[in-house]
Design goal:
15 helices, 0% strand, mainly alpha
Length: 314
């Protein structure tokens, strides 16, 4: 296949994936916008339990809730594209500032957790595959299953009790320095590790039994080169996809952990907004996290297509 044909395939693949991502993003934005409105009379909830019909109607006019749904959505979507996500009902702070102030904390926690899960999962998955059916393999599987089965909140509380209360080694709340992120990172990272470990193990077992690995070994190539350059590169493809998806999930799925360790991140802000019925903040955070998730999924597809040309041909 010539260079021009490969370039055309890559461009077509990118355009197709981009179109799908945009359609999904629009669908998610409609869902995020309509979610709270479908849960009941939003104007009545904002006005309060003792509000009169006239006060409810005035509240609806004040927040534009008396207009047709599609007009409300188009106004919100148009403003969101310019960075105007409205203001918090509770604090009157711009929603954009709430998200940008909380995002670095969640990004820091998600990045640390992802690095930790990689540092544990990849070597453990490779060792388990190389020593298949050994005590090391069984121990790795037990460790992975345990990490996936234990709830985040329980694990976080146990870390607080052991390392914070009993031993006094680490702080149990706050976000002033990287030390404050150690326990939250352990909590989230260990729960994000099992899927990567099992995918790495399964991929390595499959690749190590393939013909090109047998050929490489028959040619007398260094075992480490065969293992890490040839086998791991092919086995790592599913892990790339899962990693991007996991990172997106961590950005929006650390509500409990952020609450336990008093981290003022995206998840914590979403929880506070839900309890306060602060619908501009809730719908904007839901849409933001979903868009990041979609973007990371698109990036994952492009990376996989670059690593494995067969994907571009499918």
């Amino acid at each position: 296949m010539c260079h021009r044909q490969r370039g055309s395939l890559v461009l077509n693949y990118f355009v197709n994936r981009l179109i799908v991502a945009v359609l999904v993003a629009v669908t998610v934005s409609v869902f995020a916008f309509s979610l709270l409105r479908l849960s009941g009379d939003l104007a009545a909830e904002l006005a309060g339990d003792d509000a009169t019909p006239a006060e409810i109607a005035e509240t609806a006019r004040a927040y534009g809730l008396d207009r047709p749904f599609h007009i409300q959505y188009l106004d919100w979507a148009g403003s969101a594209l310019t960075g105007d996500l409205g203001s918090s009902i509770f604090s009157n702070e711009p929603v954009f500032e709430i998200i940008t102030n909380a995002l670095p904390v969640t990004l820091q926690l998600a990045t640390y957790s992802l690095i930790l899960s990689f540092a544990i999962a990849i070597p453990l998955g490779v060792l388990a595959a190389v020593r298949q059916n050994s005590w090391l393999d069984r121990g790795a599987l037990v460790f992975a299953v345990s990490g996936q089965a234990i709830p985040n909140f329980w694990l976080g509380l146990m870390f607080i009790l052991l390392f914070g209360v009993l031993l006094g080694w680490l702080p149990i709340s706050g976000q002033d320095s990287w030390v404050h992120f150690i326990l939250p990172t352990l909590t989230v990272g260990l729960s994000a590790m099992p899927v990567k470990m099992r995918l790495t193990r399964a991929g390595m077992i499959e690749v190590l039994q393939s013909d090109f690995i047998r050929t490489a070994r028959a040619k007398g190539l260094d075992p480490n080169i065969v293992l890490f350059k040839h086998a791991l590169r092919n086995a790592i493809l599913p892990v790339v996809s899962v990693t991007m998806v996991t990172f997106g999930r961590l950005l929006g799925g650390t509500v409990v952990v952020e609450s336990i360790f008093a981290l003022n991140g995206i998840g914590y802000e979403a929880l506070q907004a839900i309890t306060r019925q602060d619908f501009p903040v809730v719908q904007s955070i839901v849409a933001f996290v979903a868009f990041v998730y979609i973007g990371l999924t698109l990036l994952s597809d492009l990376i996989n297509a670059q690593l494995d040309p067969r994907i571009r041909l499918s």
